[in-house]
Amino acid sequence: MKKLARLVASLILAGAMAAPAFAGFEFHGYGRAGVLLNSDGAKAQSGAKDGGVIAPNAPAKSYLHNIGRLGNETNNYVEMEFTNTFKAGTVGAATKVRLAAKDEAYTSYPRTDLTNNEAGVFVRELYTEFYGLPFAPKSTVWAGKRFYGRDDIHINDFYFRIMDGTGAGIMNVPAGPGSLDIAWINATNSNTGDFPVIAGKGQLVQQNLDVRYKGIKALGGEFEVEGAVASVTDEKAAGNADSGMQLAALYSRADFFGVVPGNSKVVFQYGTGLSAGLGDAAGPWFYEDATSMRLIAWGVANVTDKLKVSPSLVYQTADELYGAKNPDGKDWLSFTVRPQYNFTRNLALQAEFGYETGYTWNGDGSVMKLTVAPTITLDDTSFWTRPQLRAFVTVGSWDKDLVTTWNAVTGDASSDKDGVTTYGVQMEAWW
Predict the structure, then answer these.
(1) Residue 253 domain boundaries
(2) Peptide bond before 387: cis, by omega within 30 degrees of 0?
(3) Cα torsion at 410, 413, 416, 418 (round to 10°)?
(4) Of 144, 323, 380, 403, whose CA is between 20 and 30 Å from 213?
């Protein structure tokens, strides 16, 4: 009887050791919330009497903060990431879920009514990754819906590389002095007109094969090169692209271009056809003859213990990106700089100047803004310290021609305004 009991106990122990074990749980996120009012005390956003200072649209992206996001964000936004990790022997796994929500109305209980600039909660990521697998002990294998290889200029909220979608891939495959990331990403977007249903085929989906080689150490920093090809099963209209390719090279440093402590990055991107949007996983609205090229330089300079400065410079040139709306040789330039000076550990003054000029799909024009923001912060050790509480005043101006061609600049197509003053408060945190 004792032998049987010992045998049963041994089997239970062996089974427990062999079964996957819950290893841990993590909760991370990002959030911002605030009030942005115009000079009449009304909401400063598209649709109000005068909007926030909104950039007129870069020729290949629709982001609204190319002149800086400080004192210029009209919505509340939150992301919540939940991660469960597991371990069985030498093999580990993690399942991640990211929920996100935003609203643009200062109501305590927003409705899920998109026509009123309010929204519900959305699943932005849902994927599982494995690591330590016997056939790939140093690599990570994944599948599902995820943010993939994102890179942004934080002060502009400008994602120059945002290959988000659903698919599968393998990361950190050892190869010479660096490593390879390979991914197959499928994407559409919320505008079904961009990905229509084709009779006899179904709804179009853009497929992307993305290959990155990273970890090349040289010139005091690290290089990464990327190549990607994209395709859809059909064109949405005559002249639109059904394929494309893009190339990118990134150079990153752990200081500000070798001058002072901080960080810095230089980026080159080139794309054709379906990939002329540069860095995006979904872009079937581009023309088959479209080409574009982009150069970026940005970073954070820790000038002194008290003063941190983050500048960004983006230049882009494009041909036939929107057909007749973007003919050959049209350029776009954006410059933003945000200094932050800490008077004490918890009290700082931030300012931000932004300028954008060039050809948009609404014509030639320029936009400029200046924000001053007294800030309560948790610490003075880093430009990235959060959470922060800010009060701000923003003054902006733009070419009047843009008002008549794009009503989102002021939220009023009949407005003759060429400038705006806005003010408000905001919190920002990540965890």
Answers:
(1) 55-369
(2) yes
(3) 30
(4) 144
Report pLDDT digits (tens) over 30-46.
999 999 888 878 777 54
* Assigned domain for 419 exists: no
Residue type at 283 in one-letter notation: G
Is 193 within the bounds of a domain? yes
Q: How many domains does the chain have?
A: 1
Helical H runs in 119-199? Answer: none
Winning range, highest mean pLDDT, from 72-81, 184-193, 399-408: 72-81
Question: What backbone phi and psi angles, to 5 degrees, belong to 412?
Answer: -145, 105
> For residue 34, is it within any domain?
no
Q: What is the CATH number of the domain that holds 110?
A: 2.40.170.10
Number of residues in the chain: 431
In sequence order, the 6+-apart residues with CB closer than 8 A to the CB of 50 are: 38, 39, 40, 44, 410, 411, 412, 415, 417, 420, 422
Asked if the structure places residue 331 within a domain, the reply is: yes
Specify whether the backbone of 116 is left (phi greater than 0), alpha (psi in -120 to 50) or beta.
alpha
Q: Report the predicted TM-score, pTM, of the whole model to 2 decimal places.
A: 0.86
Q: Which two tokens stand for residue 331?
A: 């350029």
Q: What is the mean pLDDT of residues 256-276?
A: 95
Task: Compute the distance between CA of residue 257 and CA of residue 219 in angstroms, rounded to an integer.
Answer: 10
